[in-house]
């Protein structure tokens, strides 16, 4: 089944802005980290641009870095904001909050994680993330025609692209 051809909606997927500096070198995943000041400013610019469009509804991850612009746009346009757990970033389990360099020093585990079958303890695998992204995508088919804005995370968007383009999960780390 072609996951793309059956859509009559326009969908804008938007990754959240820059996060606070102290979290940039750790696996933050589903940790609810704030946007940096620059991230907030750029998010507001995105909201200003999107305000020019006729939007049916807004979907957002519940994490504050995605929810910040989603709430503002929803209030400004007086349109529904639908918060979806499925739009969260990947769950890194016990890796959450740990320095990236610490995990990269375990190349065998890191390589297996990138191949999509292995999950960090208490976390989810890339395959799990892809399934979650595909499930969200399939749930959009029943929406009426129009423009929908989806505020989410880079990992989610890349996983969805891999799913839609039928790419191996290793490509998730190349764009």
UniProtKB/TrEMBL annotation:
Domain of life: Bacteria
Protein name: Histidine phosphatase family protein
GO molecular function: phosphatase activity
Gene3D superfamilies in UniProt: Phosphoglycerate mutase-like
UniProt xrefs under InterPro entries: His_Pase_superF_clade-1, His_PPase_superfam, PGM_Phosphatase
Binding site for substrate: 65, 89-92
Annotated catalytic residues: 16, 89
Species name: Thermodesulfobacterium geofontis
């Amino acid at each position: 089944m072609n996951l793309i051809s059956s859509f009559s909606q326009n969908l804008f997927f938007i990754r959240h802005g820059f996060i606070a500096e102290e979290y940039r070198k750790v696996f933050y995943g589903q940790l609810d980290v704030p946007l940096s000041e620059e991230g907030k400013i750029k998010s507001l610019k995105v909201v200003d641009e999107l305000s020019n469009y006729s939007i049916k509804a807004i979907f957002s991850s519940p994490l504050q870095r995605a929810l910040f612009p989603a709430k503002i746009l929803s209030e400004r346009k007086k349109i529904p904001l639908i918060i979806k757990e499925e739009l969260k970033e990947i769950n890194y389990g016990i890796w959450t909050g740990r320095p990236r360099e610490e995990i990269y020093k375990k190349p065998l585990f890191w390589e297996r994680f990138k191949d999509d079958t292995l999950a960090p303890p208490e976390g989810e695998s890339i395959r799990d993330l892809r399934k979650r992204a595909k499930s969200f995508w399939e749930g959009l088919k029943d929406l009426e025609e129009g423009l929908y804005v989806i505020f989410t995370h880079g990992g989610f968007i890349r996983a969805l692209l891999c799913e839609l383009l039928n790419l191996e999960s290793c490509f998730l780390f190349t764009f």
